[in-house]
Design brief:
It contains 3 helices and 7 strands; from the N terminus they run αβββββββαα. By secondary structure, it is of the alpha+beta class. The longest helix is centred in the C-terminal third of the chain and has 17 residues. Bound molecules: ligand K1U and zinc ion (ZN).
Length: 167
Amino acid sequence: MALLKILQYPDKRLHTVAKPIETVDDTIRRLAADMAETMYAAPGVGLAATQVDHHLRLIVIDVSEEKNRLLTLVNPVILAKDGESVHEEGCLSVPGIYEKVTRAEHIQVRAQGLDGQHFEFEAEGLLAVCVQHEIDHLNGKVFVEYLSRLKQDRIRTKLVKQQRETM
Ligand code: K1U
Ligand code: ZN
């Protein structure tokens, strides 16, 4: 397994729309394992392949306290959404920035597992927030795009400055 480099906002590659995974093979299983290791090390509760510069529809999530409930979703799709709730979100590609975002409260999700089999589940709370946040990444959208233009500009300036200082 390997730790992968996480792209940092405002990297343009974060706006790439990921392609569906045709076959779940050992290459995809290795990428998923590396993504999980990277997410746990960060630490974070989710990671999309887009964030590690692999433009395939693959996400990993673990919102459990004990970090022992890894969920790997291949080609995830939201089948239904209902209600609205506001949560404070963070993003491993936007370090140090936490902002409130409104999203659907309950979602129904269809995806494939690492065995290629389709499955469905319902989510609410942090899991629902995280699935929506990660699917946004696969569609090339970063959570700061829900904020005002002024806030986006401030965040961009702050992160570009931080990145210059750590070069
Ligand atoms: O996609 C990502 O960048 C991961 C992101 C997921 C997420 C968190 C919270 C709300 C929406 C989406 C993170 O994991 S940010 C880090 C974080 O929230 C966290 C880190 C350590 C412990 C618990 C949470
Ligand atoms: Zn993110």
